[in-house]
Amino acid sequence: MPIDSPFRRLPDAQARTLAFTFAGRELEAREGDSLAAAILAAGIATTRHTPVSGAPRGPYCMIGLCFECLVEIDGEPNRQACMVEVRDGMRVKAMQGARGLGKGPADE
Amino acid sequence: MGETEYAVIGGGLVGMAVAFGLQRAGRRVTVFDEGDVAFRASRGNFGLVWVQGKGAGLPDYARWSRLSAALWPELAAELEEASGLKLELSQPGGFDICLTEAELAAKAASMAALRARLDGDYPFEVLGHNRLREMLPAIGPKVAGAIYGPEDGHVNPLYLLRALTAAFLGRGGRIENGAAVAEIAPLAWGFRIGAAPGWRAEKVVLCAGLGNARLAPLVGLNAPVKPNRGQVLICERAAPFLPYPNLHVRQTGEGTVQIGASSEDVGLDDGTTPQAMAAMAKQAVDMFPVLENIRVVRAWGALRIMSPDGHPIYEASRAHPGASLVTCHSGVTLAACHALRLAPWIAGGSPPVPYLESFSADRFALSPAA
Predict the structure, then answer these.
(1) How far apart are CA B94 and CA B281, in angstroms?
(2) Into how many domains does chain B fold?
(3) Which residue of B has its CA nearest to A52?
(4) Do B239 and A78 count as a contact with CB atoms less than 8 A apart?
């Protein structure tokens, strides 16, 4: 699948390839990627819509400070994608507005 | 240096509400704000517009708080119009949630005593677990019940401060930032604000929070206020689950969940402690088990400004006419009274309520006022 991303992997990247999904799309990552890096490398810029205005947001600071890269990972809402290492089979969804409370994913 | 008609010392919620109200009464006002080194209770508070439970020791404080809550929609409408901001004012009533029957009974008795002192004119309800659950389905099994105060509510205190500031500046008011006031000197006519040459003001209003303790004696006033620390936990935004504010947990208009209500005497230390944060978090989860997995994203401490009896102090200086003092713990709740009722009095009008003298600092004198 062709990927249209402004981010390029280093030509000597050797790590093993992993598979994960974002919003149901099958994507590839490399072992050791942060989830945010893998998402950006896959050409995805928007990973959530904000609770207050609904504006689109995506990974920005990549060091755990800005909280713009919040996603739902395997049913757990509001995880910082830049602070999580991608794992094989991870199911990731965009955060749409505020999380729900109690058990279960936010928007199901 | 500059000249002004009214110098308001302090640019927090009390000072800005008074400045806005003075300006509304046709006065020329300059606010002297200490800057970001100040303790800033206005930026650390919980945001309640709260009536219930206040005034057990001074029923006039209950009257004054109820008046302010009733005036709040008028203040909010005017500020929203002037600033273009939404203040998130919501006054659906609020709860004081109790985890034991003994606590609920004690609070119910205290509220009944206050109602009796107010000739029966003091609305509240005592709700057991089942009736409370009908209004607040998220409560947990450990909750014994709650006191419901129909006049309670909440607001976004940061937007309130910003709106007061924007409205004041928009109508030609002046704010001197980074202007800590170390000296106030009464002159033959008016006051010098700050070290010489300083500013010259016809009148001065002390709204400096904890700083009032030191400034008040310079103009013949008494403000024996001390700090009391409250810590606040800020959680991530969540889908609406809490349609009423309460003293321990509130959900803001933008979905943020705030947890609070610690109280410590630790001087001027506005830090946080793991012990207080853990206790507040545990209590919040006992009250609302759905919060079990919510993330805390920030925490802070802020210093309440407490007079010896916890009630406001409003006083005009007899020794130095033209100087007055406004200090209280509840700068959010009382913002409406300060802007719409107290400021017109400071501007030269008659007392807004017949009981205003109840808030004089004379009550702290060891002997009857000299």
Answers:
(1) 20
(2) 3
(3) B254
(4) no
Cα–Cα distance for residue pair B192/B3, rounded to 1 Å:
9
Residue B120 backbone phi and psi in degrees, to 5? 85, -5
Per residue in B38-89, pLDDT (tens digit) is: 888 999 999 999 999 999 899 999 999 999 999 999 999 999 999 999 999 9
Q: Coil, strand, or helix at residue B231?
A: strand
Q: What is the mean pLDDT of residues B343-364?
A: 96
B244 by DSSP, 3-state: which? coil
Q: From residue A83, give the alpha-carbon distance in Å to each of A61, A88, A97, B16, B42.
A: 11, 16, 20, 42, 33
Q: Are residues B203 and B253 in the same domain?
A: no
A94, A48 in Cβ contact below 8 A? yes
CA separation for the pair B370, B367 (Å, rounded): 8
Q: Measure the CA–CA gap between B240 and B46, rounded to whole angstroms.
A: 18
Pair (B282, B350) in one structural domain: no
Contact by Cβ (8 Å): B230, B260: yes
In a domain, B85, yes or no: no
Shared-domain flag, residues B192 and B49: yes
Q: Is B282 helix (H, G, I), strand (E, B) or coil?
A: helix
Residue B343 lies in a domain: yes
Which one of B88, B156, B234, B237 would you mutate to disrupt binding with A, by most A Cβ within 10 Å of its Cβ? B237
Q: Which domain holds residue B247?
A: 226-306
Give CA torsion, residues A85, A89, A90, A91, to 10 deg: 160
CATH number of the domain enclosing B185 = 3.50.50.60
Predicted interface score ipTM higher than 0.85: no
